[in-house]
Amino acid sequence: MVTTGSIPEIGVVHKNGVRRIEIRRPEKKNALTRNMYAAMSEAMEAADKDAATRVIFLHAKGDCFCAGNDLKEFQQAGEDSKLRAGRENPFLKTISRLEKPMVAAVNGQAIGVGTTLLLHFDLVYAGCSATFSMPFVRLGLCPEAGSSFLLPRLVGHQRASEILLLSRSLSAREAVDLGMVNALFADNRVVEQSLVIAEKLAQQPPESVRLTKALLKKSARSTLFETMDDEIDHFSRRLASGECREALAAFFQHRPPDFSSFT
């Protein structure tokens, strides 16, 4: 099934349980405008509510993933900082609260919000020549999109400080080593190979996937103790489940467990 985005710069395609959202502004290095933010937010919220969609997949057309915000539009907003920031916040809040798993395929440069939006994704794959940069300090700005919170959690305080304070660009290999990217693929196959993984994820038990994502994300949204309480609640339920009973029985009987009867 193929659908279209609300504007030409954002394409939407649905196939095999994966809702593909493509940034289509290669002539401007896929720099994001307010309308593009709104269209992506709309597409992602619709995907999250659609029962046929199991995975949300983001990629971009051309040889640059995203050059950040459209600077001309950014400047035209003048001194109205609420307008400049407020237009993008709904999108960023949307991706931070989506229940379904999100996968991104990065080709070429990811600059500014092109990198920080990836910190909200569950799985990120990149081409071997991809680069990642958050040049906010160099531009006299400060981190955005929650990157001052998410990046240190991902790479550690000292490394996050170096990346943000020095506006240091990262190679694809460095991004993998730091845990920002899951794996690298050939530049001309990154979307294809990432889609294979997204389709595999779409075949997993959907409720289990959503629950696991919620548990993984909850610690970033609330306190450690609330997360522990949630884990204990779910853990106690799992102890009483048939799957757990079979696993424990197999362990004590020194045989492989058989989960073929479970759905």
TrEMBL record:
Entry-linked InterPro entries: ClpP/crotonase-like_dom_sf, ECH/Chromodomain_protein, Enoyl-CoA_hydra/iso
What name appears for this protein in its UniProt entry? Enoyl-CoA hydratase/carnithine racemase
In this entry, which stretches build a coiled coil? none
Q: Where in the cell is it found?
A: Peroxisome
Transmembrane domains' residue ranges: none
Question: What organism is this sequence from?
Answer: Desulfosalsimonas propionicica
Q: Which UniProt keywords apply?
A: Isomerase, Peroxisome
Keyword Isomerase on this protein?
yes
Instruction: Write down the superkingdom of origin.
Output: Bacteria
